[in-house]
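Subject: complex prediction, re-run

Hi both,

The earlier run crashed halfway through, so I resubmitted it with identical inputs.
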Amino acid sequence: EPEVTQTPSHQVTQMGQEVILRCVPISNHLYFYWYRQILGQKVEFLVSFYNNEISEKSEIFDDQFSVERPDGSNFTLKIRSTKLEDSAMYFCASKRTAEQYFGPGTRLTVT
Amino acid sequence: GEDVEQSLFLSVREGDSSVINCTYTDSSSTYLYWYKQEPGAGLQLLTYIFSNMDMKQDQRLTVLLNKKDKHLSLRIADTQTGDSAIYFCAERTGGGADGLTFGKGTHLIIQP
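This time it finished cleanly. Structure:
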């Protein structure tokens, strides 16, 4: 069964460093998403991406964040200058119609 | 704004039915979802319901939607130890908005 994959599973970085989180959505899906879950809190929507552009973003998704689909399979989330409060689990999701399928997540730890 | 509320914990005996409840505030919700998260794992889509339906059944899972009261429930029949997880309710609103709004999740605890 096709699934969304994410790499790495765990990323540790120092405050102020740039990180890139990678996702491979399900191959025939057209809509792509990033969400985050700070430990013990709700899963929060960050951004949606369709037809090679951002279609919606939340207040969390400020200028420090960017997304890209560099080729036909990968979807990336870049955080330019990480802060301690960016420590969270980051989930990628994709869909073709109504069902959003999530990847296993990347745990980002900022020290 | 949008908000989704769930009870934090539910404890049931193995073999009984579990009913997990969720309330939401946005009347323009188009789709409502249930996801399952096991420890250390991602979010597994269990089922979803379109807002013009009031019930959906899929094997042991039954979703009930009361649109007037903005109340959604997930019933798991014959609860097993493998059902132990956190269950998240999520809504997708209309008007072009596509991101899901999640509740805090309900921890389902199974007693032997």
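The two ends of chain B are 41 Å apart (CA to CA).

- K.
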